[in-house]
Write a structure and sequence with these properties.
Blueprint (H helix, E strand, L loop, with lengths): L1 E6 L26 H5 L15 E7 L5 E7 L1 H4 L4 E5 L23 E2 L5 E7 L2 H8 L3 E6 L27 E4 L2 H7 L2 E9 L11 E7 L2 E6 L4 H12 L6 E4 L15 H13 L3 E4 L2 H7 L6 E9 L5 E12 L21 E10 L13 H18 L4 H6 L18 H12 L12 E2 L2 E13 L5 E8 L4 E4 L9 H13 L6 E4 L16 H24 L7 E3 L2 E4 L2 E4 L7 E9 L3 H4 L3 E13 L5 E11 L6 H20 L31 E5 L23 H13 L28
Parallel strand pairs: 1-25, 2-13, 11-12, 15-16, 20-21, 27-28
Antiparallel strand pairs: 2-6, 3-5, 3-7, 4-6, 8-16, 9-14, 10-11, 10-13, 14-15, 17-18, 18-26, 19-20, 19-25, 22-23, 23-24, 26-27
The structure holds dioxothiomolybdenum(VI) ion.
The site of dioxothiomolybdenum(VI) ion (MOS) has 11 residues, from loops.
């Protein structure tokens, strides 16, 4: 197989996508996988029923810290249809919080958190396995655990690893103490965010098949290759002995990045029993056994001079995590680069707690970090008597304020200005509580948004068949983001074929490895691999037609060049295939690559009850070329919805005595739903980032959530005059600051 490599060592001045006469890329094309999903023919992990299938139900530790001293399976094993009660020390390993993490080892007897997987009951039906799981008798000794991060914050230590150099643990420059003493205006306060759950619609599910020393696993994973490597490590197998298939994934948000307990348990059971084993987590198990966004305790100290120039940017963050895990929530990530300021410090520390594994969740670090930073910016703007947009404009850096590196593209100012115009920001009253509509207090809030753009190695095979159909094969996944559609659009444009002629096959580790779905890099990395393959196929087609490649046009299945007109099917023989390889290069480190945006919202707070309603929303983003306006807009809206939930309702509550996740279903853990969300206006600026990749695009998946919650919090303040710094802003935290009840507003 021919390989075609695109390595980002120099800017990509001339993208082939800009030469396509009537491009599909950039349009609002509906998802090509949509019909399969709505008709139920898109098969998800749990929907596989191999012959001889049996069912496993995970056992969990019912205490937060200590040791299991005895497991008595006798009663369970005597029940009808029960095949095994499996305890295996490999079962309690997991894939950690991010792609590439080693699988940490916990002892089989030691319990580090409430809900830790400790065994699997296997039976010939799900019902029998569930019934038997209730009859496994455990004896255990509890030990004192650490369940309260805030109370234990003095024990916080630096994280053990900076995660591929991406999560900067500590940076400082200038003299922050001196800057604080000299500042004309200073904000120095603590913001707190709770643990959060990814709450993907599809629960984690795996069907494991063991045959002739080979393991095949139908699973729901964002990065099958990473999951395969972790699973192989856990199982003591070679990666070549494991195949993972995840063609359809019902949402991930980071919760399906690393291998999770159901896959490990299913694999062990299939190997031991020699039969296919299915393990589907219940909703409650997803909440208490997979992973969570860690909670944060963030001190921000921002100072400015009388002219409204930031002189001090200090962000000291504490998060929590299990002992031995390397992932940490990098809450200071955006603080490094969002605003200018000579004296700076960003710091991350971790408290080791006995609570569910902390993992990446949509915009790790940036989502909760910008929640705090953008609220602090609002407070400092007020202290300076400046409009919060004006304050941000005065602190726009020309280069990365810590490293001095130029930005590949940065349209924050344009986002702020256009967003303000779309929303009608100038009608805002700067005095909190000044705008009242009957019993509703009305506030406007805004924030900036920034999300680092990443690029990882990715491969895709593109094959033009003899009949003119085109097949794309890559291990990349579509977790609801639009990958199937975007890759088909790129192929259709670059090879000049109809969309209906393109077949995209995803999510199989036997196909060329991608960077997976994570970190907002999925579309750009897998799209770049497809670009590389198509670029080489164009060269091949041109050569077959005897035309210089720069002279050809491919459209409607026909190659044209001066004096030449040939159907593509005439040029490919029995088929033509190229494996495209996208590789990061110097461009990806020489310049800072970040997507930007600005959020604006109106929040109404009921003067009597404190009920909050987000009433209106506009966001403007700049993320390079937008590959599909519909799927990108959906990603932006989804992120904003997550931001609204984070601001107002989402909170994973841990029992302070055990760390147990108390609200472990979608009734008790409240994600924002339709009734909570107004029409959301999303606008993307025209932008091309030639430094990022050959598509000239940047990531969008995690951009929307960044800063969104802060816009809500700032609007709540503008409506009521109450600053709530402990998220979520539930109405009980507002009541003390609402206007006094009068006879006109009192009700029986
Ligand atoms: Mo994302 S948190 O890298 O799925």
């Amino acid at each position: 197989m021919t390989e075609a490599i695109v390595k980002m060592d120099t800017p990509f001045a001339d993208s082939l996508l800009d030469r396509v006469p009537a491009p599909l890329v950039g349009t609002e094309l509906p998802r090509i996988d949509g019909p399969r999903k709505v008709t139920g023919t898109a098969r998800y992990a749990a929907e596989h029923f191999p012959d001889g299938l049996v069912h496993g139900v995970l056992l969990r530790a019912p205490f937060g810290c200590g040791r299991i001293t005895k497991v008595d399976p006798a009663e369970a094993l005597a029940m009808p249809g029960v095949l095994a009660v499996i305890r295996d020390e490999r079962m309690v390993r997991n894939g950690g919080g991010f792609a590439g993490a080693a699988a940490p080892v916990q002892g089989v007897e030691e319990v580090a958190y409430f809900g830790q997987p400790i065994g699997l009951v296997v039976a010939d039906s799900l019902e029998r396995a569930r019934a038997a799981a209730l009859c496994v008798r455990l004896t255990f000794e509890t030990a004192p655990g650490v369940f309260d991060m805030v109370a234990s914050r003095e024990t916080a230590l630096p994280p053990t690893d900076d995660i591929f150099g991406l999560f900067l643990i500590h940076t400082e420059q200038g003299d922050v103490a001196h800057a604080a003493s000299e500042a004309s205006a200073l904000v120095d306060a603590v913001w707190q965010t709770p643990s959060q759950s990814h709450a993907a619609m599809e629960p984690h599910a795996s069907v494991a098949i063991w045959q002739d020393g080979q393991l095949t696993l139908h699973g729901s994973y964002q990065s099958p290759v990473v999951t395969r490597d972790q699973l192989a490590t856990v199982m003591g197998l070679e990666p070549t002995q494991v195949r993972i298939l995840s063609p359809f994934v019902g949402g991930g948000f980071g919760g399906k990045l690393g291998v999770m307990p159901e896959a490990v348990a299913a694999a062990i059971a299939a190997q031991q029993l020699g039969r296919p084993v299915k393990v589907v987590m219940t909703r409650q198990q997803v909440f208490e056994m997979t992973g969570r966004r860690p909670m944060t305790y963030q001190r921000l100290r921002l100072g400015a001079d009388a002219a409204g120039q930031l002189t001090l940017v200090q962000h000291d963050t504490i998060t929590d995590q299990l002992t031995g895990e390397v992932f940490f929530e990098p809450a200071g990530l955006a603080t490094h680069l969002l605003y200018a300021g000579a004296n700076r410090q960003v710091d991350h520390k971790v408290v080791r707690t006995n609570k569910l594994l902390g993992v990446s969740m949509r915009a790790p670090g940036e989502a909760v970090g910008q929640l705090a930073l953008e609220c602090a910016m609002d407070e400092l703007a007020e202290a300076l008597n400046l409009d919060p947009i004006e304050f941000r404009l005065r602190n726009e850096p020309e280069r990365h304020p810590e490293t001095g590196v130029p930005f590949s593209s940065r349209a924050l100012v344009a986002c702020l200005k256009q967003g303000a115009a779309r929303f009608g920001w100038p009608t805002r009253s700067r005095d909190p509580g000044a705008f009242r509509d009957g019993e509703w207090l009305v506030g406007y809030g805004m924030s900036s948004a920034a999300r680092g753009n990443l690029f990882g190695p990715s491969r895709a095979r593109v094959r033009i068949e003899g009949d003119g159909r085109v097949t794309v094969e890559t291990e990349m996944t579509d977790i609801g983001t639009g990958t199937y559609t975007i890759l088909a659009q790129i192929v259709a444009d670059l090879l000049g074929v109809e969309l209906a002629q393109v077949d995209v096959r995803l999510g199989d580790t036997d196909d060329p490895a991608s960077a997976g779905s994570g970190g907002s890099w999925g579309a750009t990395t897998s799209g770049s691999a497809v670009y590389a393959a198509c670029s080489e196929l164009r060269v091949r087609l041109a050569a077959a037609a005897g035309a210089p490649v720069d002279a050809i046009t491919l459209a409607g299945g026909v190659l044209t060049a001066p004096g030449i007109r040939r159907p593509i099917t005439d040029l490919v023989g029995n088929g033509l295939a190229v494996e495209g390889v996208a590789q990061p290069g110097e461009s990806n480190t020489r310049l800072n690559q970040t997507s930007y945006g600005a959020h604006f919202c109106e929040v109404r707070v009921h003067a009597v009850t404190g009920e909050m309603r987000v009433a209106r929303w506009s966001s403007v983003f700049a993320a390079g070329r937008i590959l599909n306006l519909k799927t990108a807009t959906s990603q932006a809206i989804g992120g904003i919805v997550l931001g609204i939930g984070g601001a107002l309702t989402e909170e994973l509550i841990h029992d302070p005595r055990s760390g147990k996740v108390v609200n472990r279903d979608l009734g008790e853990y409240h994600v924002a739903v339709h009734a909570d969300i107004p029409a959301i206006d999303v606008h993307f600026l025209e932008e091309r980032d030639s430094v990022a990749n050959p598509l000239l695009a940047k990531g969008v998946g995690e951009l929307g959530v960044c800063g969104a919650g802060a816009a809500v919090a700032n609007a709540v303040y503008n409506a009521t005059g109450v600053r709530v710094r402990e998220f979520p802003i539930t109405l009980d935290k507002l009541l003390h600051g609402l206007p006094p009840l009068t006879s006109a507003t009192s009700r029986t």
